[in-house]
Amino acid sequence: MSNGFSSARSPKSIVSRGFRGRRAADADPARVPPGQYVTRDFPVLSAGPTPHTSLELWDFSIIGELEEPRSWSWEEFRALPSEEITRDIHCVTKWSKLDTVWRGVSVDTLLAGVETSAAYVTQYADGGYTTNLPLEEITGGKAWVVFAYGGQPLAPEHGGPATHARPAPLLLEERQVGTRPPAPIDRPARLLGNKRLPRLRRPMAGTALLGRLTWQLAELVEVVVETPHVKTLVFDVPGWPGHRAGQHVDVRLTAEDGYQAQRSYSIASAPDSTRVALAIQRLEDGEVSTT
Amino acid sequence: MLVAGGSGIVPLMAMIRTRAAAGNDTETRLLYSARSQDDLIYRDELEHLSGTGLTIVYTLTDLQPPEWTSYARRVDPEMLAEVAPRPAEQPRFFTCGPTPFVEAVAEALVRLGHAARGIKTERFGPTGR
After folding, report:
1. Which of A207, A222, A257 delimits the end of a domain?
2. Are A268 and B109 inside 8 Å of each other by CB?
3. What are the φ and ψ backbone dihedral angles of B73, each rounded to 5 degrees?
4. Is B111's Cβ below 8 Å from some Cβ in A?
5. Comparing B73 with A26, which gets the higher pLDDT?
6. Do A128 and A115 fall within a single domain?
7. What confidence score (pLDDT) does residue B118 get?
8. What is the ipTM of this complex?
9. Of A2, A35, A81, A44, nearest in space to A266 by CA
10. Domain boundary at A161, A182, A207, which?
11. Chain A within 8 Å of B112 (Cβ-Cβ)?
C-alpha cells in the first residue's frame, strides 16, 4: 500500500544531497535481505486496538481432522516443554531485527502423537485473524507458539501472551493465539484440514517481491517550517499514481557512496497530481530526519 | 473521529484535507494532543477548516498559553468520553501517534464500549523494546 520514491534505474547515479547516513558496522549484510534495514526497535504495526487477554480465559486448541481435539489452558500450555529460539526477523514493511530471542513450545510438541491426513492448518487468533499454512511448513522443528521475547513475557502489542513464530522469508504478522474464537468455530483453534486458502499468505508475499513496488524519483520543491521540530517537505513525483488519505510512503535516501537508508512517512497531503507532502519530525539521533 | 498524538496528526490531516477538497461535510471530530501550542502543526489551516462539520478539540499536555480554556492533560478515558460520540452512534475512529499514545487511546475507546473493529490505528516510532 505504498509507493516509494528514490531512483529506480540506477541507484548509483542519484544521490540525495546532504545525506551521509549511519552505517551499522555490526550488521552483516549477508543477513539482511535486499531492501531491508536493521532496527533495534520493535515496531508495532497492528491496524487496530491490541487485544488484552485474561490468562484465565486463554486457551489454545487443535481441532479438525484428528481423532480427538486437544486443548490447553494457560497453565497447561506453560507446563509443556519449551525451548529458546534465536532468529533474525524480517518484516514486509522493510525492517529487520537480528538475533531476536524467543521462548516457546514447538508445534511438534503440540502435535505429538497426532495422526492426521490433513495437509494444511488454519490458525485462528484473537481479533479474527487467520493464517493458513501447509502442515509440513510448521512441523519438523520449524514453528513454535512463543510466549516470551528477550527473556520477558511477550507483551500484548507484540502478540502476547502467545503468538505463532515460524522461520520464514518474511515475518507476515504477529497474531495473538488464544481466546475470543471467531464464528462459527466455538474455540480458538488450529484447524487441521485439507483446504488450502490461497488469499491470506500469497498477497503479502507478493507485495514484498522486488520489482513489484518500483522506486520513483522525487524532487524536493518546497519546505515549510511548521514548528521548531517539524517541517513539511513537498515533493514533485512525476508519474505519481495517486494515494489515499492515511497512507504512508517509503522514502529512500542515497549517499554518495551508494549507501542507502529507508524510512516510512505518512503522507500529509490530499491526493493532488504529482505533489506529495510529508511532514518530518526531526529526531535528535535520527539518521534520516536530520538530513 | 480522529485522535492525534503529536506528529500523528499528519496522516489524519491528509484525511481532513481530502474531506475538505471533496466538499464533504460529514460530522468529523478531531482530538489533537500536543505538548504545547508551538508544537501544533497545521494550526492556521485547522482553524480555517473548522466549522464545516469539523469540530476540533485540543489538549496541550506540557505548556498552555495564558487564558487557555481547553484540556491541559494527556488524553484519558474521561476526555474521550466527553469528546467522542457515544457508542450507539457507531462512530469510526482513526488514531495515530506514538505507540504508547495509540495503545492508551485504543484501549480507552474499547473500554468505553466502542467496537474494536471500528478503531483504526497507526503507531509511530519505537516501542522501547
Report:
1. A207
2. no
3. -155, 170
4. no
5. B73
6. yes
7. 92
8. 0.84
9. A2
10. A207
11. no
